[in-house]
Design a protein that fits this description.
- This protein has helices spanning 3-6, 10-77, 80-90, 113-126.
- The protein is mostly helical.
- It has one domain.
- It starts with a helix and ends with a helix.
Length: 127
């Protein structure tokens, strides 16, 4: 056995593994680069979502405040005392209609049978 077979020469080892090491280094670099790029993209998206979340929180707080103010206005408008005051200011003269104030209309001339039936039924109801 020669020395060459038992121990490969340094140049042969470098030739044999030099391309593989370079390829491994390139693959590892690409993996770390893509992981880093993905991390930055996720952090940017997280920051955008955080800003959007804050805007939505602010809009929600504003909407709640508007609802609270509207509830207060409605409560003020619907207070019994205020309603009575508004009714008094309007000077409402609403009162029930008496039966003597009801006007009966009599149709003269040619009346269709259906209209005549309705008039007769109404007269029967009044009696």
């Amino acid at each position: 056995m020669s020395a060459r077979m038992t121990k490969p020469h340094k140049t042969e080892t470098a030739r044999r593994w030099g391309g593989g090491a370079l390829l491994r280094l390139l693959v590892v670099g690409l993996v770390f680069g893509s992981v880093g790029f993905g991390y930055v993209a996720v952090k940017n998206q997280q920051a955008r979502y955080g800003k959007q979340k804050e805007k939505l929180k602010q809009a929600l707080l504003e909407a709640r405040e508007e609802i609270r103010l509207a509830d207060g206005r409605i409560a003020i408008l619907l207070e019994r005392k205020r309603l009575e005051e508004r009714l008094a200011r309007a000077g409402s003269s609403l009162r029930p209609i008496s039966s003597g104030e009801i006007i009966e209309l009599v149709v003269e001339g040619e009346v269709s049978e259906q209209a005549a039936d309705v008039v007769h039924e109404a007269e029967e109801v009044r009696r």
